[in-house]
């Protein structure tokens, strides 16, 4: 509906005036500089928010897929008596809906050595078929093969462990465990050499540098397990369905057991990631807020500079609403265009973040991403379009709010006073 005696809201006349106020003139150069800095600030703030949130999403999802994909989702541990009936337990659990597989596992710590050096490792004994069905391992074997795993004495190790020990497929890895055979003089360390059958690389330092997989029966013999296992790991179709899966497992497994799941084992780690993500969002939002405040100062100066023009417009019949909308359009245009530019910059940077990292690393001749420190072999980035929409809405909302007070000041300007002292 049109203002009384004025033009329709957001008419071409108002857009034309707003466009003229946005153009640079020599006399208004300082105002234009402030508007330019406001535009750049909003663009960089929005782009930085999108990039950081995408990297943190990718980091969390990559860690989740690797940690959960390697370790399972629900863990069945024995209570009171050893888990010697692990075959029956695994078969019963695998029959439940939503369960991909149940993997009986023997775990133990050992010292691994070669002719080069040595270090601590975590030995995991699994059935050969279970290891071949573990996609994180079987799909990432880059040297050797798992075809003969279980048919002969041999182990599969991570690429970083193989590199640190100087080992290749066919070489020998010596494992030393303090829990060996009992003698009249005490427990003697168990020392045994195993050939390397396969070397895998999942892209996560924790697994590539410390895990050694061996056949289940061999692990039981090595760690003096009397036909039992440490835990049965249950893999689900959807890792988020752990509560329903735990209830179903309790109903089907008729023996004393202790159940845990991946959310409990990694709760502190993923909680820390979530807290860091929220804090980063708040900190980076301040960049957009500062840019929005620049819009306020720029518009106030523009209103002061254009006070005589506003007075003439009012005397010619322009309403207060029309004047307010002109400056509203002027300020909001800076924020909206800056937000759209930030969206484009953030998405392009995120989609090419690995290539950009490689270019910068080549130019500076430095390692920008150390996988031994950051767990992952490369920078992960995953755009969540719902979050991007929230960032855009926040930036545009702040930009619009920033224009309200200067626009209101312009609309309240007294034409007589402006012409007298303008």
TrEMBL record:
Q: What is this protein called?
A: ABC transporter permease
Q: Pfam families from the xrefs? A: FtsX, MacB_PCD
Indicate the segments forming the MacB-like periplasmic core domain, all copies: 39-251
Q: How does it sit in the membrane?
A: Multi-pass membrane protein
Q: Which organism is it from?
A: Salinarimonas ramus
**Matches recorded under InterPro entries:** ABC3_permease_C, Lipoprotein-release_system, LolCE_TM, MacB_PCD
**The ABC3 transporter permease C-terminal domain, residue ranges:** 281-415
Residue stretches spanning the membrane: 30-56, 279-303, 323-349, 385-405
GO biological process terms on file: lipoprotein localization to outer membrane; lipoprotein transport
The answer on whether this UniProt entry bears the keyword Transport reads yes
UniProt record similarity statement:
Belongs to the ABC-4 integral membrane protein family. LolC/E subfamily.
Has UniProt tagged this entry with the keyword Repeat? no
Of the GO CC terms on this record, one is: plasma membrane protein complex
Instruction: Kindly state which keywords UniProt assigns to this record, in alphabetical order.
Output: Cell membrane, Membrane, Transmembrane, Transmembrane helix, Transport
């Amino acid at each position: 509906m049109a203002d009384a005696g004025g033009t329709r809201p957001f008419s071409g006349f108002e857009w034309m005036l707003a466009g003229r106020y946005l153009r640079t003139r020599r006399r208004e150069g300082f105002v234009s500089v402030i508007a330019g800095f406001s535009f750049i600030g909003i663009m960089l703030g929005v782009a930085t928010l999108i990039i950081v949130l995408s990297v943190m999403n990718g980091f969390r999802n990559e860690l989740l897929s690797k940690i959960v994909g390697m370790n399972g989702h629900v863990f069945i541990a024995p209570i009171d008596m050893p888990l010697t009936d692990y075959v029956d337990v695994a078969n019963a659990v695998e029959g439940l809906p939503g369960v991909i597989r149940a993997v009986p596992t023997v775990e133990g710590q050992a010292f691994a050595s070669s002719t080069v050096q040595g270090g601590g490792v975590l030995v995991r004994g699994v059935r050969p078929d279970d290891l071949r069905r573990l996609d994180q391992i079987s799909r990432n074997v880059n040297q050797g093969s798992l075809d003969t795993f279980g048919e002969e004495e041999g182990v599969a190790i991570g690429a970083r462990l193989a590199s640190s020990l100087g080992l290749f497929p066919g070489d020998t890895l010596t494992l030393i465990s303090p829990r060996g055979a009992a003698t009249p003089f005490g427990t003697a360390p168990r020392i045994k050499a195993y050939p390397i059958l396969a070397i895998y690389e999942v892209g996560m330092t924790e697994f590539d540098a410390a895990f050694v997989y061996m056949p289940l029966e061999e692990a039981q013999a090595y760690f003096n397990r009397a036909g039992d296992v440490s835990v049965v790991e249950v893999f689900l179709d959807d890792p988020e369905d752990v509560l329903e899966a735990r209830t179903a497992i309790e109903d089907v497994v008729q023996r004393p057991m202790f159940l845990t799941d991946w959310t409990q084992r990694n709760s502190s780690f993923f909680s820390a990631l979530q807290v860091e993500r929220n804090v980063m969002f708040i900190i980076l939002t301040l960049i957009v807020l500062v840019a929005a405040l620049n819009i306020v100062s720029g518009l106030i100066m523009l209103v002061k500079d254009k006070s005589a023009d506003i007075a003439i417009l009012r005397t010619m019949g322009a309403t207060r609403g029309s004047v307010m909308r002109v400056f509203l359009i002027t300020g909001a245009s800076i924020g909206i265009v800056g937000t759209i530019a930030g969206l484009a910059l953030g998405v392009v940077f995120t989609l090419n973040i690995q290539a950009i990292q490689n270019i910068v690393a080549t130019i500076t001749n430095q390692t920008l991403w150390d996988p031994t420190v950051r767990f992952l072999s490369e920078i992960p980035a995953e755009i969540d379009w719902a979050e991007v929409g929230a960032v855009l809405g926040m930036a545009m909302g702040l930009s619009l709010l920033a224009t309200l007070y200067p626009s209101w000041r312009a609309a309240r300007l007294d034409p007589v006073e402006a012409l007298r002292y303008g």
